[in-house]
Design goal:
With about 90 residues, this protein is α+β, with helices and mostly antiparallel strands. It is built from 3 helices and 2 strands; from the N terminus they run ββααα. The longest helix is centred in the C-terminal third of the chain and has 12 residues. The relative contact order is 0.14. It binds zinc ion.
C-alpha cells in the first residue's frame, strides 16, 4: 500500500503498464476545470487545462486558439459577436 498522504482522493490515479506487462499506479494532482465560453457557458475546444507547471512549458499557440476572442468565446458566439460588430 502507498503512503497515507497518497491515499487521498484529491489525487487522480493513472494506471501505467510496465514493459513486463505488470501495472503500477501513478498518483497525480487533479487537472483544473475546463475553460468555458463567457457568453453561453459551453466547454471551449483547443484550450489546454493543465496545472501551472505544465502550462508554463507550452507555447502560446498550444494553450489557446489564435483568433479574436480565442479562449474567451466559443466559435459560435465569436461568429455572432463579429456580425454584431459589422452591423
Ligand atoms: Zn459560446
Amino acid at each position: 500500500m502507498v503512503r497515507p498522504a497518497l491515499r487521498s482522493r484529491s489525487f487522480r490515479r493513472i494506471k501505467k503498464k510496465l514493459p513486463g506487462g505488470a501495472f503500477i499506479t501513478h498518483y497525480l494532482k487533479r487537472k483544473p476545470s475546463v475553460a468555458k465560453c463567457s457568453a453561453c457557458g459551453s466547454k471551449l475546444h483547443g484550450v489546454k487545462s493543465e496545472r501551472p507547471i505544465v502550462m508554463k512549458k507550452l507555447s502560446r499557440s498550444r494553450k489557446t486558439p489564435s483568433r479574436p476572442y480565442g479562449g474567451r468565446l466559443c466559435s459560435k458566439c465569436t461568429r455572432e459577436k463579429m456580425k454584431e460588430k459589422v452591423r
